[in-house]
Amino acid sequence: MKPLSKNNLLLSHLLFFTTLVLFLCTTLTHAYSYSIVTEEDIVTTTCKQTPDPKLCESALRSDPRSSTTKDNQGLILIMIDVVKNRFSESLGYVEDLTRKTHDPDMKRALSKCIRVYRVVVDTSVDLAVRAVKQGVPKFGEQAMTDAGNEAEACWMAFPEGKAPGRIVDRTPMLHGVSNVAASMIKALE
């Protein structure tokens, strides 16, 4: 066998090194893309079982914790936080409107909204979290169903055609995230 020249030896080492680098890059890329798909799959799979998969995915993916959550309970707790945040934002808006209005019918309706939104933020959310963590999902499901109903109760408190546009716009969203959370909790039963 004839010895390899310096150029051929260098070329064979370069070829070996390039092949090794390509192999490692391909392996690492495949492993990384598999973990991303797996993380996305739990959100997608969970949300497909809810009444509004698009709203569910949007809400969960907007929270960075959903990308590291590995189980349904973690996703449910994130969704309950979404419910709390959305109702808290609405509560702040309604409290601000109450300070600005002098119309007695409007004040009465806004006071009702403040009461029902506070029930959700202060009671329903905590009840749902405890129920999920303690393994009694039916109570958590009921708490989130009630939250959706409270959003409707706020809207209905206004005289015909007098509900502020933002409340009209937000009510379906509040009702929607509450129903999604309730259905996610129900899946634990």
Mean pLDDT: 86
Shape: elongated
Total domain units = 1
**CATH homologous superfamily - what is it?**
Invertase/pectin methylesterase inhibitor family protein
Supply the CATH class. Mainly Alpha
**CATH fold name, please?**
Butyryl-CoA Dehydrogenase, subunit A, domain 3
Question: Which oligomeric form is depicted?
Answer: single chain
H/E element sequence: HHHHHH
**Cα radius of gyration in angstroms:** 26 Å
* Structure summary, number of beta strands: 0
Q: How many distinct helices?
A: 6
Which structural category fits the helices and strands?
mainly alpha
What is the CATH architecture annotation? Up-down Bundle
**Low-confidence region ranges:** 9-25, 27-39
Q: Give the helix proportion (percent range).
A: over 70%
| Beta-strand residue percentage | under 5%
The main pleated sheet reads as: none
Instruction: Quote the distance from N terminus to C terminus.
Output: 74 Å
Architecture overview:
The chain is mostly helical. Helices cover 81% and strands 0% of the residues. The protein has one domain: Invertase/pectin methylesterase inhibitor family protein (Butyryl-CoA Dehydrogenase, subunit A, domain 3). Helix 5 runs antiparallel to helix 6. The chain is elongated. About 16% of the residues have low confidence.
What are the defining features of this structure?
mainly alpha, Butyryl-CoA Dehydrogenase, subunit A, domain 3
Write the layout of secondary structure elements.
Elements: H1 6-48, H2 53-61, H3 72-100, H4 104-134, H5 137-156, H6 165-186
Helix pairs in contact: 1-2, 2-6, 3-4, 3-6, 4-5, 5-6
